[in-house]
Task: structure prediction
Amino acid sequence: MGEEGVTIEFLSKEKLNAEEFEEKLELVLEKVKDDAVLVLEEAWTPEEKRHLIKNSMEQIDEDFPGVEFMGLDSSTSRLEKAKNAIYRKIMKEEYRSGITIVGNSRVMDKIKEERDSVSFLAKMED
Amino acid sequence: MVFIPTDRFLVLSGVNMIKRLKEFFSSLFNNSEKDDLSIGIYGPPNAGKSTLANQISLDLTGEEMANVSEVPHETRAVERKEKVEIKSDGQTLDINLLDMPGISTNVDFKDFTEHGIEEEDAKGRAKEATKGIVEAIKYLDDVDACLVIFDSTEDPYTQVNVTIIGNLEAKDIPILVVANKIDKEGSEPDRVRDAFPQHPVVEISAKEGENIDKLYQEIVERLS
Result:
């Protein structure tokens, strides 16, 4: 967190596509531990979100209480799941339409998620 | 004409359901090459996982299996009731009932001090809780079926819950969603249905034992 507020950083899909998931995860956690909130121009799969939770848990200490994350994608509908499966089969990569927001849980509060909207309060440190 | 008192009928019905549950586990046994089967109870912290685990364990073995508390992350390691022996039609089945630590994305030791726990103890609990969450996540690869339980007074549509369900779906692990705490004011089990319309939902109060027989019925009918 900067002196006057929370840094919100937007990462384009072009930048994200250029990296392997492990590198991306490392970059995300590094920035998040520095109190930034990241807006990623891609949806993460449940397996990738699972790695986010696991890796952040392994790094928790007195200064880093963990993450909050939100996602906007329609991967829960059967039609979207079918589209994703076809895309994966043909393109040999994940279908990533959507966005993912990840931040330090110390600076994200009042998380509100619905299928088509998400919001949070960027919290200033006490 | 013989009249059976309503309360007695309910007892008989419950006994019958436990018998059916045992038969269900036996059928899993018959269809599996594994020696035993792992049934995981997943969900966020304070959803009532340990209360439900105790209820099932008590019904099947006569013993409880976990501590229950209002303090979050009371279960900080996977609690196992291993080799729960079920006999049916001359066959014996061993199941492992796994009460998982509640999965969350953050663990702050201050969450424990708010419940009157001393700071040093709270820091120790926080560390244990993070290890428990990692262990629960790793177990997503090893369970054979899951009960995913939510507090029906809370909003179930969170990324943690979506992530748990999504990972189980990706591995084709049978899921039964449980909307718990229907005895509490503010309970809205329909929100659980709306959040996960692709899965069957059973409304229960694990604490009061309400609808546990329905849960057993759903386990038998849906997961098998």
